[in-house]
């Protein structure tokens, strides 16, 4: 019989793996925005697999409370576990859950958490609910929070031929003149990825619109 999922149980898996020697360079890589336990990604994923094998996932009704609780812990690995936990509810997540995703995106924000939430979790919700989901993405693009803006740009990152070109290019144009590094980078990244599906369209868009040099360089990185 599986154990009940609790944050204390999660800590019981994670804390014994604490490694200060690894934690320091991990924190430095993230500009010391967060302390780390010192658990590298492959080991953390194995630990999460063990947790889900040995503990009963919380019911969907308790999902937000459990994910949010993990996000309140200091060490960054707990935030990663929270995002992995959230991703286990993909089949149940709906447009109404985008508000909670936004809350996570704007909580203890940095590129690592935002980029784990936006392309897959948010992207999957929007893809399954195009009209309502895309309306939310339009609002996210207007947000005063740069990380929510980044998520609105990146939510179609893995869409390939399912990309809503009109929405993609409108969102990019809204932030094309931004001085913000993380927005410039996300614009270049999403264009570079979409170029794998429609290279000519991307080349024409980049050639006919004013983009930051970083965005343009990233967008055209794979063109000769």
TrEMBL record:
Coiled coil: none annotated. CDD domains: AlkD_like_1. Pfam families: DNA_alkylation. InterPro entries: ARM-type_fold, DNA_alkylation. It comes from the Bacteria. This is DNA-7-methylguanine glycosylase. It comes from Psychrobacillus psychrotolerans.
């Amino acid at each position: 019989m599986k154990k009940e999922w609790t944050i204390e149980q999660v800590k019981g898996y994670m804390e014994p793996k604490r490694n200060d020697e690894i934690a320091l360079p991990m924190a430095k890589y993230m500009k010391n925005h967060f302390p780390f336990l010192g658990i590298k990604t492959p080991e953390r994923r194995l630990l999460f697999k063990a947790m889900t094998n040995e503990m009963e996932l919380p019911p969907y009704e308790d999902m937000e409370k459990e994910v949010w609780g993990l996000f309140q812990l200091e060490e960054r690995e707990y935030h990663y576990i929270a995002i992995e936990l959230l991703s286990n509810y993909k089949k149940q997540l709906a447009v109404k859950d985008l508000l909670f995703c936004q809350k996570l995106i704007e909580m203890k924000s940095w590129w690592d958490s935002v980029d784990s939430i936006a392309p897959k979790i948010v992207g999957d919700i929007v893809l399954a609910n195009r009209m309502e989901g895309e309306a939310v993405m339009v609002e996210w693009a207007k947000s005063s929070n740069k990380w929510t803006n980044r998520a609105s740009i990146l939510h179609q990152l893995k869409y390939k031929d399912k990309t809503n070109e009109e929405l993609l290019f409108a969102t990019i144009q809204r932030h094309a003149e931004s001085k913000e590094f993380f927005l410039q980078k996300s614009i270049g990244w999403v264009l570079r990825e979409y170029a794998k599906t429609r290279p000519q369209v991307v080349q024409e868009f980049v050639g006919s619109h004013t983009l930051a040099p970083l965005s343009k360089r990233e967008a055209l990185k794979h063109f000769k």
